[in-house]
Amino acid sequence: MTCSVEIVCVGNELLIGKTLNTNAQWLADKITRLGGKVTRITEVGDDVQEIASAVREALKRKVDFVITTGGLGPTFDDKTLQGISRATGKKLKLSSEALRLVRDRYREMSILKRLRLTKPRVKMAILPEGSSPMRNPVGTAPGVLVERGSLKLISLPGVPEELRGIFEESVAEMIREKSGNLAFYESSMIVRGVVESALAPLIDRVMRVNPRVYVKSHPKVGEGRIGALIELHFSSIEKSREKAREQVIRAIIDMVRMLGKRR
Amino acid sequence: MTCSVEIVCVGNELLIGKTLNTNAQWLADKITRLGGKVTRITEVGDDVQEIASAVREALKRKVDFVITTGGLGPTFDDKTLQGISRATGKKLKLSSEALRLVRDRYREMSILKRLRLTKPRVKMAILPEGSSPMRNPVGTAPGVLVERGSLKLISLPGVPEELRGIFEESVAEMIREKSGNLAFYESSMIVRGVVESALAPLIDRVMRVNPRVYVKSHPKVGEGRIGALIELHFSSIEKSREKAREQVIRAIIDMVRMLGKRR
Predict the structure, then answer these.
(1) How far apart are CA B216 and CA B234, in angstroms?
(2) Helix (H) or strand (E) holding A253
(3) Domain extents in chain A
(4) Which residue in A69, A124, B17, B243 is a FRET match for A107, CA 20 to 30 A apart?
(5) CB–CB of A166/A77 below 8 Å?
(6) Is B143 part of the contact surface with chain A (CB cutoff 8 Å)?
């Protein structure tokens, strides 16, 4: 089984370089470890048309999951659900279930002495028709799940702790299940004093002998500078972690032997 | 004048969450400060078909610049130029100008005692027909410029120092020129003890009074947790830095006044 995932990150702060997209990396790492395969990450601004077009394109590529981050909060520029509504044709409607979640969270907050469900607060409970809210264990904006046939379109807030909380509580298990419990294993070795162009044929050979292992070179001190320093990253996806680990170790041993012969 | 830019980042390491995409953030920040507007960032894996489709879609959206990062090196999985060749229909061909740049860089390297232009090294000089190589002041793989009418498609290597070196030396000026020297100014203030849903109407009002300023709230301690801490980010793009700065300061003063009245 495979489980393909696209991530769509929403936020002007990403496009002006104010914010480093740690959410995308965190999600990609988690999803990979759960046996899923992230096939594309797209970042767009807080613009309904842009969000809708990125989501529509992701839906067209027929992945198993599309996960959006950001744009679920109470302010005017939190527009993700408007974009999803436009991409899917599902109208935005007040969800009583989501409103209950929002109200419960505010009740738990000690800082708001008397709760008023103001317009910005109610906004967080206005979801595409037929979608389900996912409890936010950390903040107030619920996550949102829209199902289209077998595809799941999931929206998570942009505040990292909230994104992580909802993912761990409600999303991780869906991905694990869809991937059929595939296991990812990775390991790295550092090679000093050999430039990448000289390593290239060795990488080719190791991958030919170990077809289930992906080897990628990451120059830390790049080609053309004194003191070449390259990270060789080995990874494998198998039915068990033990099997994936075995494959990776065998490939590393092959690489070490070839490097030894070279010297 | 406006100058729109899309960024396409290539690398499996981004999709498995191994690498935080600092290149995209660095570029987005630089481009914004040069007066350009990044409209989308896409991350795809080391796959010719995926690269080609992301580049083709970016070209279709008719921006002024498409900048790719990564996949220019000497190894088998450096496939960006193959993807660009497929997206643009320009065949890959050995460029004598690029080969000269690669050869010069290896000659300058003290670590290679005798230079052999092996296949992986020559690979870095095989470019889409009609493109121009851009000198890499730090590493060996040249940057690549493909022109399509008024659109510039630029490829930079993934090693951060190399990407930055080529950008500063050859790309920055093109963007500054295209943007007509627009200036970006930004400033932030921290608001404590007011939740985002309570700030939302104030942000609306400040933006209505200051239509040239964009105000965005970034919850540091999110809604629903004790000790609300929100960064309010103000930014403006104007013909001069002074003018942009003036607009931003006026908006901050308005916000401070409104917050004062609230208490």
Answers:
(1) 7
(2) helix A241-262
(3) 4-179, 183-262
(4) A69
(5) no
(6) no
CB under 8 Å to A176, separation ≥6 — which residues? A34, A35
Residue contact A224–B74, C-beta within 8 A: no
Residue B229: in which H helix or E strand, if any? Answer: strand B229-238
Residue of B nearest to A105 (CA): B224
List of chain B residues whose C-beta atoms are within 8 Å of the C-beta of residue A57: 57
| Nearest beta carbon to residue A228 from set B57, B111, B186 | B111
The dihedral sign for the CA sequence A143, A63, A28, A184? positive
| CB-based contact, B233 to chain A, within 8 Å | yes
- What CATH architecture applies to the domain A183-262? 2-Layer Sandwich (3.30)
- Complex ipTM, two decimals? 0.92
Q: What is the pLDDT of residue B220?
A: 84
Chain B residues lying within 8 Å of A141, measured CB to CB: 223
**Contact state of A222 with B138 under an 8 Å Cβ cutoff:** yes
3-state secondary structure of A39: strand
Give me the residues paired with residue A108 across strands. none
Q: Which one, of B4, B82, B74, B5, lies nearest residue B42 by Cα?
A: B5
Look up residue B147 and give its amino acid. E
Distance CA B19, CA B41 (A): 16
- pLDDT, tens digit (0-9, with 9 covering 90-100), for B39-59: 999 999 999 999 999 999 999
How high is the pLDDT of residue B206? Answer: 96
Q: What are the Cα distances from residue A9, in Å, to A46, A55, A240, B5, B205?
A: 10, 10, 31, 17, 27
For the domain A4-179, what is the CATH code?
A: 3.40.980.10
Element (H, E) at B22: helix B22-33
Q: What token pair was written down for A55? A: 């989501």
CB B74 within 8 A of CB A196: yes
What's at A33, amino acid-wise?
Answer: R
User: Which residues of chain A lie closer than 8 angstroms to B207, CB-CB?
Assistant: 76
Q: In terms of CA atoms, which chain B residue is nearest residue A44?
A: B40
Mean pLDDT of all residues in B237-255: 94
- Do residues A83 and A48 lie in contact, with contact meaning Cβ atoms separated by under 8 Å? yes
User: Which pLDDT score is estimated for B104?
Assistant: 87
Burial class of residue A243 in the structure, from the number of CB atoms within 10 Å of its CB (0-12 exposed, 13-18 middle, 19+ buried):
middle
Mean pLDDT, rounded, of chain A:
93
Question: In this predicted structure, what is the pLDDT of residue A106?
Answer: 83
Closest chain A residue to B123, measured at CA: A197
| Option in A18, A19, A120 nearest B197 (CB) | A120
With a CB-CB cutoff of 8 Å, which residues 66-125 of chain B face chain A? 73-77, 105-106, 108-112, 118-121, 124
| Torsion angles phi and psi, residue A59, rounded to 5 | -60, -40
Half-sphere exposure of A36 (CA within 13 A, CB side): 29
Q: Which of A1-10, A213-222, A244-253, B181-190 has the lowest mean pLDDT?
A: A213-222
